[in-house]
Write a sequence for this structure.
């Protein structure tokens, strides 16, 4: 059968178009395959890896971020890395090089020379790190100056890099942990101080800060073990007070009483410990002793509203249990009336004191 010439031309044209499309598709497929192959190759085929920075001995900048048991770090959740960043990123500068005003206080007043010196130290440290990002002296100076300015996040960044440069320096580790505590990065601080307890088991400062971090995280039993180790090494009033608070949280009231009494034996005029002792005494069942102590606190600190309020509530427990008309009940009623009147002077809109006073008047 003879195919007409016109049909043959149409078929040939269609075949040319088909071959052109197939060729273009194959070309695109080849480009895609080549690009994918290039992307899967290791970086070493394209660029040399950065050289490992040379470790240096610590230079300059004595001292560090301090966190002694007598002056604990203020007590987040990132874990400090022991690996230095590469390429090293610039350590971020805070918005202000000097500390801002603290809530509840006026603006921070710096002597001109002191402020200028602090700015100079920060500026010089950053300039040194521009030329050598792993200068131990510059990192230490930046950490110290940032801590002095209250910029704990910057101090943490500097100390994390310094820990990489000086991996065996335990003071650097301690300062990093203290800065993390000041930054309220509890989990990261716990990791640092956990490791330090194996390296410096006789350092009370390490156990003290570990106890703070564990307690803030909510690991109360582990925190208690850390407080026990702290007090065994350095039984300071601060450590005893903090362990007493932890024991109160655990409901171990008699042990808490012992700790608060130990605090007051060392520092008699510690009103917070007196209030905590009264609370622990009441919870342990010694309500009369708690009330007596609260009455003494109110006599010593007549402007302390919290003490009067606790005395009122503790006295109500005793007054409700005593025999009405007895001398004891009358005495308690008179003391409660004084507490209510004092509370209404300190807090005129206090509804609790108003209601108790009305109840006392009704009992007359």
């Amino acid at each position: 059968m003879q195919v007409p010439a016109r049909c043959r031309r149409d078929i040939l044209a269609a075949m040319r178009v088909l071959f052109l499309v197939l060729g273009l598709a194959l070309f695109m497929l080849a480009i895609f395959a080549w690009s994918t192959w290039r992307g899967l190759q290791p970086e070493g085929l394209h660029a040399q890896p950065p050289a490992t920075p040379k470790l240096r001995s610590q230079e300059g900048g004595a001292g560090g971020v301090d966190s002694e048991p007598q002056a604990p770090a203020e007590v987040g959740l990132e874990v400090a890395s022991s690996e230095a960043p590469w390429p090293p990123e610039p350590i971020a500068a805070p918005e202000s090089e000097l500390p801002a005003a603290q809530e509840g206080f006026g603006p921070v007043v710096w002597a001109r020379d002191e402020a200028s010196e602090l700015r100079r130290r920060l500026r010089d440290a950053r300039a040194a790190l521009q030329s050598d990002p792993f200068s131990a002296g510059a990192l230490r100076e930046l950490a110290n100056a940032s801590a002095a300015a209250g910029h704990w996040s910057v101090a943490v960044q500097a100390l994390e890099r310094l820990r990489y440069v000086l991996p065996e320096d335990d003071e650097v580790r301690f300062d990093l942990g203290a800065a993390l505590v000041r930054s309220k990065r509890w989990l990261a601080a716990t990791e640092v101080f956990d490791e330090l307890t194996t390296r410096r088991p006789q350092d009370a400062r390490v156990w003290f800060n570990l106890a703070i971090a564990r307690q803030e995280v909510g690991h109360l039993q582990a925190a208690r073990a850390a407080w026990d180790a702290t007090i065994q090494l350095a039984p300071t009033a601060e450590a005893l007070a903090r362990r007493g608070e932890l024991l109160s949280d655990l409901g171990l009231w008699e042990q808490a009483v012992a700790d608060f009494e130990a605090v007051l034996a060392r520092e008699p005029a510690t009103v917070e410990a007196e209030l905590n002792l009264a609370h622990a005494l009441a919870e342990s069942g010694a309500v009369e002793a708690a009330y007596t102590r609260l009455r003494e606190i109110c006599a010593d600190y007549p402007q302390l509203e919290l003490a009067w309020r606790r005395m009122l509530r503790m006295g109500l427990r005793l007054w409700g249990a005593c025999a009405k008309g007895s001398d004891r009940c009358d005495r308690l009623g008179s003391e409660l009336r004084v507490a209510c009147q004092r509370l209404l002077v300190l807090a005129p809109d206090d509804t609790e004191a108003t209601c108790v006073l009305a109840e006392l008047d009704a009992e007359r």
The chain has 15 helices and no strands. The two ends are 132 Å apart (CA to CA).
